Amino acid sequence: MNDITNLIDYIDNNLLPNIDIESVNPFNPIIVNHIPKPWILLGVGNYAAGLTHPDFPEYVVKLYAPGRPGIKEEVEVYNIIKKHPSFSECFYHTENYLILKRFKGETLYSCINKGIQIPEQVINDIDEALKYARSLGLHPHDVHAKNVMIVKGRGVVVDISDFTKIENCSLWEDFKKAYYKIYLPFFYKSHPTIPEFFLNIIRRSYRLFKIILK
To answer: Which first-to-last residue range defines the signal peptide (predicted)?
Structure first.
């Protein structure tokens, strides 16, 4: 608990007064304009940024951008899931940030970008994790390649902030279809690197396709 207490002090007195983040478009990742040293940016989502401090490498601070909703719902999900190997764990939270257990690995998006193989075991692990969440009355939502990771060869879910939403979300099922129909037969064995600009084209095209189908 001393680590958490010290980390909270670092967050409140060093990170929050000096970081500059903003959400320009709720459908695009937030923008981080400045991070105080020695904090490290691990990644950004549409609502929040994930950061770590080198003195506390086992934790990630998830900081919501000003005006972005969802932190209360995310805390609620962590309280429901409690401890599970395929999900992170929330140790502390305020009205704008959470301190979570840090997973050290690669997101599936990063794997595709870097040419790292994604074993089928990872897909099965994510399926089982989502099945567990549903058994608790949750509704897995917004599960996609940037929100799941490979950690020591196993699949984990790193963003559960939207698991209280009740509307249908097909992102993970659509990803699995692409994995089995395109990735496994054409990319898995000799996995090329795929430039990020091309992945962004795919992401935008997919979003447009889903809008047209509505």
So the answer is: none
